[in-house]
Amino acid sequence: MKLLFSEAVPDPAHYVYPFAVWGFLEKGETPATAFAAGFLPSSPNLDRYYLVRQVRVPLPGWKPNSENRRILRKLSDTELQLLPRHEWRELPGDRQRWLTWAEQSFGPGVMHLQRLDRLLSSPVVSHILRLVETASGRELAVALLYLEPHAVAYYYYAFYDTAPEWRHLGIGLMTRSVEQFSALGFRHLHLGTCYTESSLYKTQFDGVEFFNGLSWSNQLPELKHLVRTPLQGCHRLETPDFLAFQNAPLNELARASPFRTGTGPVSPAT
After folding, report:
1. Residue 269 has pLDDT above 50, yes or no
2. In what order do the strands lie in the sheet with 2-7?
3. Into how many domains does the chain fold?
4. Measured between alpha carbons, how far is 102 from 157 in angstroms, rounded to an integer?
5. What are the pLDDT digits (tens) for 112-164?
6. Category of 17 on φ-ψ map: left (φ > 0), alpha (ψ -120 to 50) or beta
């Protein structure tokens, strides 16, 4: 991947001059290359990626724990339908229903019709995953996915009925997805970012990992520390509490880093 560094908000008083890291695929690389390196798509066209604290579930050999089984039992009268986007047949009212669910979950204006239309016509949505009642066929929830068999599945957006009797549908659809893609032989299911307390529900799956800027980690106390300890006037690698989770000095962390600059000569600009 090629990297660009986009300047973010600086804090000169504390000598903090951050850059956001953007990644661009090179010849022979696919989106799975970016996901594996800790990047998520920052464009629905899959032409740009950004390095983030994201969560993924390793799927080979995955087994549901007691909490996962409890959720799955609540959905015993439902079934999943996984469709390539080009095979999905939209029914009247589908988009408006999804937008209503999205407003109930995300708040007004976060997902509007133009944005949904753009996503549904973009490469980042390769598949539609529907959760329906087995008896009636009524749609209860839907997820927009990017799949690259069998390397990566990306759980991009989910919309679901928020009625009180279906209050478990959000985590339920995610749990069914982990179960489904494990059975299909995928390596990882990526669940998006984790920067807030409310996002920690994504860690309910045994073996879950997150990208900490250095590597993939399965240490949940470390993730909870990151979520609950905001930075002020420093970089994370300057904080002893974070470094204590790494069990290595900075020079060893640098040697183990998957990122490096090019080693060839730099051509002068023309």
Report:
1. no
2. 2-7, 19-24, 49-51, 39-41
3. 1
4. 9
5. 999 999 999 999 999 999 999 999 999 999 999 999 999 999 999 999 988 77
6. beta
In a domain, residue 19? The reply is yes
- In the numeric block, the tokens 């990566």 are attached to 152
pLDDT value of position 171: 94
Question: DSSP strand E in 194-230: where?
Answer: 209-211, 216-217
Please give the pLDDT value at position 104: 85
Average pLDDT over every residue of 38-67: 97
In terms of residue numbers, what domain contains 21?
2-253
Specify the pLDDT at position 251.
92
Task: Judge whether 186 lies within some domain.
Answer: yes
Of 158, 142, 43, nearest to 106 by C-alpha is 158
- 113 in any annotated domain: yes
User: Is the per-residue pLDDT at 267 higher than 50?
Assistant: no
Using CA atoms, how far residue 265 sits from 202, 258, 259, in Å, is: 44, 21, 18
Residue 14 domain-assigned (yes or no)? yes
